[in-house]
């Protein structure tokens, strides 16, 4: 087991900082998903290979929004500021699910981000999950804001009927139903990935039961290609929403279905890690 130093951050930037090799100029920003987990073990994987790693707490902490509701994208710019202040001139953002949504958005406004690894990503902005800083969760609002202005998002379809898989709710059809309602809303909520100067690595499973990350990933690739840019898609038909890097054993949710199998999720994670190591 690799041992690493952890510096807890409780100021403007919250989370855990794991210093890498003294000479390293690479900084990795690790963004968890809607669980709110500060993913120190995953950040440790990057510190192990020499990168300075920051597992960011971007909601749910003191003075932060308790839910994913109008989270300022400046939160991620501040985290990048911290890594650059340490001498990092090559910033890589690794985000999972809602964290991938944040990572892609951040890369469209901050050219210091040189690569994004978007795991189980989305190609559009979605509404809030939980309360904002005002303690209000409904009516629905955007997950994100920039300079105080909420970003356009895909509205929820409240007529959706719950679907189950292995006794747990599968939300995939919810997101598909929301997307089918308003073409103009889809256009307004699209993440403008063509604005990103970062190298984009997309990791998605065809058996994602939480949302259609495989379809989202393909849309991102197509959007980039339409503007003369590229994106790399690492895909496995049998993998689900939860992708496991080597050595990881992240538990499945007890509230909703992730899809996939442990074996396929881990196999896709190994393939993704081989690409990520080259970035580092």
Our Rg estimate from Cα atoms comes to 18 Å
Provide the succession of SSEs: EEEHEEHEHEEEEEHHEHEH
Beta strand count: 13
Shape: globular
The residue fraction in helices comes out at: 25-40%
The CA-CA distance between the termini, in Å, is 20 Å
Task: Give the overall pLDDT as a whole number.
Answer: 96
Strand order in space, largest sheet: 1-2-4-3-6-7-12-13
Q: What's the main sheet like?
A: 8 strands, mixed
Structural class: alpha/beta
Spans of at least 5 consecutive residues whose pLDDT stays below 50 are none
Q: Hey, roughly how much beta strand do the residues contain?
A: 15-25%
Total helical elements: 7
Keywords:
280 residues; alpha/beta; 8-stranded mixed beta sheet; 29% helix; 21% strand
Q: How does this structure look, described?
A:
It is a single chain. 29% of the residues lie in helices and 21% in strands. The chain is of the alpha/beta class. The chain has an 8-stranded mixed sheet with strand order 1-2-4-3-6-7-12-13, with helices on both faces. Strands 5-8-9 form a 3-stranded mixed sheet. Strands 10-11 form a two-stranded antiparallel sheet. Helix 6 links the parallel strand 12 (199-205) and strand 13 (232-236). The longest helix is centred in the C-terminal third of the chain and has 18 residues, at 262-279. It is globular.
